[in-house]
């Protein structure tokens, strides 16, 4: 490998050669403190995966009943991990820390947008979770009942998740930025029994109501008849309609409950949660994670990628509505007995330094955010962060999308003062936790690369036949062996799980290979460089959206005959959304209609899905068999020349019309 800081400063990832060694001081005390130690762990895992995972599961988790087997892969791709064992995620996150001095350690620090803040020790958090668990039981919620959470970033969101896990009621967290229609779809798909929400939250210095969206989801278009109860946290204290018998205030129902509620022993493969994410076809799919494997993976990865220490103050800026919030705000940190920070707000014109203020105030040691946020900070300049004391930081993380070397270097320099390793973590909702990432005490980092797979993760770059690709040849990112945190199925659609993830690539030996949907390459040092999705998924500011979802939202508008949606590179958001729309006969595409269509998509899905640009066209470029040629649209959307074969176009004049 070339030497540390002397490499060329070329910004293209293809030519990126800079290499940064882990800080010596960090490496000296790290759990995994050298590349050799990392490689030794990998070899151990590869040699006998069952022994590797089995030892870790026994050592790192509490078990009510020990498991009989580690991995049952007799019916691929449906894996069973740690069969025969019983455990409880809420117990692992709370009860087991109560025996010693950790009981009075801060578990959760919460910072509200208006500046109010709260903190909970492990003992206090345990009591709050028990009360919430008893409240859910009082509503008749029990083992196996799906509970939806539609919440702002308030402590009750984490408390509710842990309460669900405690009583064995799987949760389905729906990001609070999704619309009433999107919420209803998820309530219906999951046959959800209860919804936990809040009257609202604070955004950009204003109270923003949330409960009306729940009311709309439950009332309009037939509602979601399975929902019996709505539990409402009072946050903004404005007017809030409450339906008698159905709606209950959290403070009225939860606060008076007993602070004792034993954790339900759950079978390893009992469903823990469902989390919806976008794919290239159809409606968002409910990714199912189960109890023991997910717990182990969130726990281990958190420990490894942040080399967690007892005095760490960890802050992940994600929303609990996404997998990053599940694994690295709530479950990974608490399972490890760490202190985790949760922030309701975001940088905004009145407070551009909001994030740095949180770091300074709480002396955060680990900061985990998304490249899109880093790019926005870069744009507004270093003067803002330079005003804050961020000397407490020791590790920086990124997640959600490829990070360009320029943003990586800025992050390392301006936020980390060239002291803190940057861990660029590649993973997905489906993988439960991080899969490819530097270990801060072991892995030399290269700007723009998520570096090496974690121990036990058989990541590879393959072609469509599952053949490993040589160094620097591009290909598809795949995983050759099951791992404990893998999703188990698509809720209600096991065939979709099989098809979308395990049968896209079928190697000649008929082994099963997990297809991640990302394009990537591996360099001569074995480092992975993820390029982005190869399917019809757009990554907007680290949020995953299916082009089909946005297209069906558009065509549900009465003026729209047909729509095709593509992504185009965007300096800040990673990708922007461009929609090509054909209108019903006699309709005229003007600015008013564009505004109307954007609002319509916002209502159908949520504001994050609103197209950045809508182009009206008389027809869309299609093949003779009627398939939309997205490649052409992608080129047009990003202002590039349409290259490659266009001979399959049914009508070449369509292309000429689109060009003008
Ligand atoms: O394309 C990859 C990108 O985000 C996708 C997963 O999105 P989601 O399930 O919403 O989970 C996001 C948080 C884990 C991946 O298929 N992605 C995620 N992390 C990275 C990334 N792309 C490049 N580098 C990363 N570190």
Total count of strands: 30
Helix content: 25-40%
Mean pLDDT: 94
CATH topology of the domain at 541-658: GMP Synthetase, Chain A, domain 3
Placed side by side, the strands forming the largest sheet appear as 12-11-8-6-7-14-15-23
CATH architecture of the domain at 541-658: 2-Layer Sandwich
- CATH top level of the domain at 541-658 is Alpha Beta
Q: Output the CATH homologous superfamily of the domain at 541-658.
A: ANL, C-terminal domain
Q: Which molecules are bound besides the chains?
A: adenosine-5'-monophosphate-propyl ester
Write down the overall geometry.
globular
Radius of gyration: 24 Å
Largest sheet: 8 strands, mixed
Distance between the termini: 49 Å
Low-confidence residue ranges:
1-11
Counting DSSP H or I runs of 4 or more residues, the number of helices is 20
Measured by DSSP, the beta-strand proportion falls in 15-25%
Structural class, by secondary structure, is alpha/beta
List the helices and strands and how they pair.
Blueprint: H1 24-29, H2 35-47, H3 49-60, E1 71-75, E2 78-81, E3 86-87, H4 89-93, E4 106-111, E5 117-121, H5 122-138, E6 147-150, H6 155-167, E7 171-173, H7 180-190, E8 194-198, E9 200-203, E10 206-209, H8 211-219, E11 229-233, E12 247-249, H9 250-253, E13 266-267, E14 271-277, E15 285-290, H10 291-305, E16 313-316, H11 323-335, E17 339-343, H12 354-362, E18 366-369, H13 371-380, H14 383-386, E19 395-399, H15 405-415, E20 422-425, E21 459-462, E22 474-479, E23 489-490, H16 494-502, E24 514-522, E25 528-533, E26 537-540, E27 543-546, H17 547-555, E28 560-570, E29 574-583, H18 591-604, E30 613-616, H19 630-637, H20 652-659
Parallel strand pairs: 4-17, 6-7, 6-8, 7-14, 8-11, 11-12, 16-17, 16-18, 18-19, 19-20, 29-30
Antiparallel strand pairs: 1-2, 3-13, 4-5, 9-10, 14-15, 15-23, 21-22, 22-24, 24-25, 26-27, 28-29
Helix pairs in contact: 2-3, 5-6, 7-8, 10-11, 13-15
The structure holds adenosine-5'-monophosphate-propyl ester.
């Amino acid at each position: 490998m070339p030497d540390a800081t002397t490499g060329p400063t070329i910004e293209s990832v293809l030519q990126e050669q800079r290499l940064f060694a882990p800080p010596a001081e960090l490496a000296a005390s790290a759990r995994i403190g050298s590349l050799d130690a990392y490689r030794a762990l990998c070899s151990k895992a590869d040699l006998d995966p069952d022994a590797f995972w089995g030892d870790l599961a026994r050592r790192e988790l509490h078990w009510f009943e020990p498991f009989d087997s580690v991995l049952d892969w007799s019916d691929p791709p449906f894996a069973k991990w740690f069969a025969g064992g019983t455990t409880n995620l809420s117990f692992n996150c709370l009860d087991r820390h109560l025996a010693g001095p950790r009981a009075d350690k801060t578990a959760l620090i919460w910072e509200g947008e208006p500046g109010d803040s709260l903190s909970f020790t492990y003992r206090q958090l345990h009591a709050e979770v028990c009360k919430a668990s008893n409240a859910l039981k009082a509503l008749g919620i029990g083992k196996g009942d799906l509970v939806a959470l539609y919440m702002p970033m308030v402590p009750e969101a984490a408390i509710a998740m842990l309460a669900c896990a405690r009583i064995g009621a799987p949760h389905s967290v729906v990001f609070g930025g999704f619309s009433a229609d999107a919420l209803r779809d998820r309530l219906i798909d999951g046959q959800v029994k209860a919804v936990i929400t809040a009257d609202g939250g604070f955004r950009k210095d204003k109270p923003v109501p949330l409960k009306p969206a729940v009311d709309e989801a439950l009332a309009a278009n037939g509602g979601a008849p399975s929902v019996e109860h709505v539990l409402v946290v009072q946050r903004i204290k404005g007017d809030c309609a409450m339906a008698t018998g159905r709606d209950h205030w959290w403070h009225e129902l939860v606060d008076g409950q007993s602070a004792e509620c034993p954790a339900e022993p759950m079978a390893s493969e009992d469903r823990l949660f469902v989390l919806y994410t976008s794919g290239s076809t159809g409606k968002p799919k409910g990714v199912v994670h189960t109890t023991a494997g997910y717990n182990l993976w969130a726990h281990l990865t958190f420990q490894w990628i942040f080399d967690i220490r007892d005095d760490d103050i960890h802050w992940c800026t994600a929303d609990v509505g996404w997998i990053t919030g599940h694994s690295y705000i709530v479950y990974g940190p608490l399972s490890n007995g760490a202190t985790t920070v949760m922030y309701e707000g975001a940088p905004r014109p009145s407070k551009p330094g909001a994030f740095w203020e949180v770091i300074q105030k709480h002396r955060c040691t680990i900061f985990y955010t998304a490249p899109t946020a880093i790019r926005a900070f870069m744009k507004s300049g270093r003067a803002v962060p330079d005003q804050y004391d961020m000397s407490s930081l020791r590790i920086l993380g990124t997640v959600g999308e490829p990070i360009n070397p320029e943003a990586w270097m800025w992050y390392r320099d301006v936020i980390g003062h060239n002291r803190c390793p940057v861990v660029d973590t590649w993973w997905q909702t489906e993988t439960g936790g991080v899969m490819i990432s530097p270990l801060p005490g072991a892995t030399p980092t290269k700007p723009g690369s998520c570096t090496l797979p974690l121990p036990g993760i058989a990541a590879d770059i393959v072609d469509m036949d599952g053949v490993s690709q040589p160094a620097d040849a591009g290909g598809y990112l795949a995983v050759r062996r099951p791992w404990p945190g893998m999703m188990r199925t698509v809720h209600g659609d096991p065939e979709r799980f099989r098809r979308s993830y395990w049968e896209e690539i079928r190697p000649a030996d008929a082994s099963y290979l997990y297809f991640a949907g990302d394009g990537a390459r591996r360099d001569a040092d074995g480092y992975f460089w993820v390029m982005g999705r190869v399917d019809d998924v757009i990554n907007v500011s680290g949020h995953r959206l299916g082009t089909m979802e946005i297209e069906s939202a558009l065509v549900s508008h009465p003026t729209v005959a047909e729509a095709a949606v593509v992504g185009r590179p965007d300096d800040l958001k990673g990708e922007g959304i461009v929609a090509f729309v054909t209108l019903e006969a006699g309709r005229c595409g003007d600015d008013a209609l564009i505004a109307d269509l954007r609002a319509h998509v916002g209502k159908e899905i949520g504001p994050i899905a609103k197209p950045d640009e809508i182009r009206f066209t008389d027809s869309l470029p299609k093949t003779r068999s009627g398939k939309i040629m997205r490649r052409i649209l992608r080129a047009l959307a990003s202002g590039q020349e349409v290259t490659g074969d266009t001979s399959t176009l049914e009508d070449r004049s369509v292309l000429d019309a689109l060009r003008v």
